[in-house]
Design brief:
The complex is a heterodimer. Chain A is of the alpha+beta class. In chain A, helix 1 packs across helix 3 and helix 2 crosses helix 3. Helices cover about 40% and strands about 15% of the residues of chain B. Classes of the chains: A alpha+beta, B alpha/beta.
Chain lengths: ~160, ~400
């Protein structure tokens, strides 16, 4: 990754709404060079999506998230990737990682209720022949998401100082 | 009851920014660009060293000069980062650079002495000089000169009573810096009139587009300079109150005496944290400082363009984390502008007049605040200018 790309990505990671012009000003770079860097990273898949980090803990909409540990037997020919691709197809799956350690996949699912999550596990995950076991952990509270603290802290500084 | 106050204490003016503070505190949606300290929290490794020092029970005084290992690190730091050579027995660890300013002025200033101060400049020099019985003499710095001190303006301000000059670059409130060449230009005036330089270099790590040059690094200047520095701005350690002072031998001894009878020593926990700041800095190439500096630089570039685009001319500051735009084109003084902006758009800036008469038509905007707030503040200021 080029230096400019890294710098552009750092700005976008803080605020994905920043356009090429603003980023160029902040970095002291040419607007066109920034736009090229963004396009190149989009094309390579380095930039996956522009999104807002949300925290619905305080909202009234009912929403349940769970982290499911999944142990599987890798498939001949496709290893873990074939299974992962199938699991990832489901809209409920927000995040899917292949892990080292005691289990193979970390699947974060989001659904409208505990029942929906349970149904998803029993009907969509456990039915795979290669799945050996699952362990489900419901997410109770989020303190930090994608590097951002969820709780707005009170200002620590005096508001006006010499 | 008797009147207990001294004349000089009675004559001290309260800071002009107090009223803004009270208003801002009462406005929940206010955005403050009036903050003179980093918005970063002290890096974890440094905080952790402070905690460890407490756990180990290091709660006692240190020697007056400060911990030897800290002074050894400061000595190395000054040499490697700023090319100035002070042995550790010529370094006093102070309660922030603020104590250093106080010590230096109390050591050298008394009735009848005139001390030159760049105008505009940080608020504490003039009151301390007055408390010492001296006379603070402002030296006009101009926006067209990027607020540096020129040899001509300096020469014009010197009288027979002039004893010293306060240099404060990178500068609060203007963000101006003085390059090696610009500093060299004033040296002949300093030498000709046998002046002492009190150089407040608290923002030395925060320069953009080039390293800070310390006046003490110039030929012959170390022996007529009191160099003041600290950890507050570079390492986001304002609340720890730890800094350092380096001075010519005789002045150093006098400053140490005042320090031992007043502060005794800088807080020990803070000294241990400062050791971690420098030791960790040498290990990592001062990466934490560099990351903060890079973030300030991104904001600086954004905000200077925003100010100029909205019609508030501002020279490009190359140090600290302040901008000092002129508001003259609005027909308002800095004070009127700050008051109206706060009332109508709930954005706090500090009137330039708080830093000296030459700041009358300016306001100080601090960009030590997150990009989100800075962007919002820029939009509100632009809206204010359009609808005034």
């Amino acid at each position: 990754m080029e230096k400019l790309e890294r710098e552009v990505l750092a700005v976008l990671a803080e605020d994905c709404r920043a356009d090429a012009e603003k980023i160029a000003v902040m970095l002291g770079a040419e607007k066109e060079a920034v736009a090229r860097a963004v396009r190149a990273m989009e094309k390579r898949g380095t930039i996956v999506k522009y999104t807002a980090i949300s925290n619905l803990d305080e909202e009234e909409d009912e929403c349940v998230e769970a982290l499911i540990e999944v142990k599987v037997t890798p498939q001949s020919g496709s290893g873990f990737d074939g299974i992962a691709e199938e699991i990832a197809q489901h809209g409920e799956v927000k995040t899917l990682y292949l892990m080292s350690g005691a289990y193979d996949f970390a699947v974060i699912v989001e659904a409208g209720s505990v029942k929906s999550v349970s149904r998803f596990i029993s009907e969509c995950i456990s039915t795979f022949d290669c799945v050996l076991s699952t362990a489900t952990h419901f997410i109770l509270k989020k303190y930090k998401i994608e590097g951002a603290l969820t709780k707005r802290e009170k200002p620590r500084r005096l508001s006006v100082q010499p | 009851m008797r009147d207990f106050l001294t004349k000089s204490a009675r004559a001290l003016q309260p800071s002009g920014i107090r009223k803004y503070f009270d208003i801002v505190e009462s406005l929940p949606d206010a955005i403050s660009l009036g903050v003179g300290e980093p918005d970063f929290v002290t890096p974890w490794d440094i905080r952790s060293a402070g905690i460890r020092s407490l756990q180990k029970g290091y709660t006692q005084y240190t020697g007056n000069r400060g911990l030897p290992e800290l002074r050894a690190l400061i000595s190395r730091y000054l040499k490697e980062r700023f090319a100035v050579d002070y042995p550790q027995d010529r370094i006093i660890v102070t309660v922030g650079a603020s104590e250093g300013i106080d010590l230096a002025l109390r050591a050298i200033c008394e009735g009848g002495d005139e001390i030159l101060i760049p105008d505009p400049a940080y608020v504490s020099y003039a009151p301390i000089i007055s408390l010492c019985g001296g006379t603070p003499v402002p030296v006009r710095c101009r926006a067209e000169n990027a607020f540096i001190l020129t040899a001509e303006d300096l020469e014009a301000a010197v009288t027979k009573r002039t004893k010293a000059i306060v240099l404060a670059y990178p500068n609060n409130p203007t963000g101006g810096i003085m390059t090696k060449e610009e500093l060299e230009a004033i040296v002949p005036v300093v030498e000709k009139h046998d002046l002492l330089v009190i150089s407040d270099e608290i923002y030395a790590e925060l320069t953009y587009g080039g390293r800070h040059c310390s006046v003490a690094s110039l030929a012959g200047m170390r022996e007529r300079t009191v160099l003041l520095g600290g950890f507050s701005k570079a390492f986001a350690m304002t609340g720890w109150r730890v800094g350092f002072a380096c001075a010519p031998a005789e002045i150093d001894r006098a400053m140490l005496k005042i320090h031992q009878y007043t502060a005794l020593c800088a807080p020990r926990i803070s000294q241990h944290a400062a050791v971690a700041a420098l030791a960790g800095g040498f290990e990592s190439g001062f990466s934490a400082v560099e990351e903060m500096r890079a973030e300030y630089d991104r904001r600086r570039r954004f905000f200077i363009k925003a100010l100029n685009d909205m019609g508030l001319p501002c020279f490009e500051p190359r140090g600290a984390f302040y901008m000092f735009p002129s508001v003259k084109s609005t027909g308002m003084t800095g004070e009127e502008f700050a008051g109206e902006l706060l009332k109508r758009e709930q954005v706090a800036v500090v009137p330039g007049s708080a830093f000296g008469a030459c700041g009358k038509d300016h306001v100080r905007c601090s960009y030590a605040t997150g990009m989100r707030e800075l962007s919002e503040a820029a939009e509100r200021i632009a809206h204010f200018l359009k609808n005034r």
